[in-house]
Amino acid sequence: MTKLRRSDPAVLATVSYSFVEDWLSALRTYCSDREMNSFLDRAGMGFDQPGHAQRVTLDQIVRLYQIAAIETEDEMMGLWSRPIRSRALQHLITTIREASTLHSALHRFTTFWNLLLDDFRFGLNEKDGAIVLQLHPLGDLPIQRFGHMLIMKLAHGLISWLAEYEVPVREVEFAFERPVFAEDYAVIFPASVGFGAPLSSISFEKSGFVPPKKHGNPELTSFLYRAPRDWIFTSYWEHTLSLQIREFIYRSEWEKCQLDDAARVLGVTPRTLMRRLEAEGTSFQSIKDGLRRDMAIRELQSGNRSIEEVSQDVGFSSASNFHRAFRKWTGANPSEYRK
């Protein structure tokens, strides 16, 4: 299959509100309703009627993390039973950047967290040419889906930062059932994601490990300043088929782009492409509609263009049709979303 070019961040624009609900529930245990509403408003997530149809941008997730980590004095913001105090991430990065190999860096990662976490223990092993990082529960606490995602992606983000390229991921599995927002995980992980596994885990292709680069204090400071952007949203060189199609549509004359066009670029037959997309739980039209939705959201949030102009930009013949589609996508009309 032909590999497409590195993704533009605009292509991977939003996740559903449900994707972050576990995180928001954890945050609410730290603060009053007034404080929580302030967090959400400052991050641009103060929706009047949040729900699964509502969309959250990656920029909003980053802003909320940066606000909440400071305000709660917990760098994991209630996602684990023990607070992760300020500067813990800095100490973690200082520890792993001295590793001579990526495998050693992951070992240091597990040792660090096993000193801090009371409810889980990390394990690290090799299997079939892969390095597997597993999260073992130490009790019967409910699974925090956002927390499991965040810490697995932290491991990937850190070794990718050390290597200065996105380290290949073979597979990600989670110890909870497939959620309604399962497709959102494809925005985060450049690999297949499974659910209902005995343990949450992430496996890396051992053949993709290279000697880490040396990182000085200025690079460490920059990484921390941008956190969690660079470790949650690593730069995709390879990713799931649905995201490859999304990128192809984005870089083409997307209004006219058809499934046959994408199949030709990817070197497969249209029938094969349809079958593979079905296996990922999506379709060509769903991917195209999702891209239009996210392009519209970004334009509305920038506030630089009128709603009529945005509707034309994303291919609607009339503003009324755009209003109907946007309400179906997000649960709000465009003017409400812009507010």
Describe the model.
The chain is α+β, with helices and mostly antiparallel strands and 339 residues long. 50% of the residues lie in helices and 11% in strands. The chain has a five-stranded mixed beta sheet, with helices on one face. A two-stranded antiparallel sheet has the order 1-2. A hairpin with a 2-residue loop joins strand 3 and strand 4 (130-137). Helix 11 (259-266) packs across helix 12 (270-279). The longest helix has 19 residues, at 145-163. The chain is globular, with a radius of gyration of 20 Å. It starts with 13 loop residues before the first strand and ends with a helix. Mean pLDDT is 86; it is low at 1-7.
Q: How is the main sheet built?
A: 5 strands, mixed
What spatial form do the alpha-carbon principal axes imply? globular
Q: Reading side by side through the largest sheet, how are the strands ordered?
A: 3-4-7-5-6
Q: Which consecutive residue ranges, at least 5 long each, have pLDDT under 50?
A: 1-7
Oligomeric form = single chain
Into which percentage range does the β-strand content fall?
Answer: 5-15%
Number of distinct beta strands: 7
Structural category: alpha+beta
As a whole number of angstroms, the C-alpha radius of gyration is 20 Å
Secondary structure tally, helices? 16
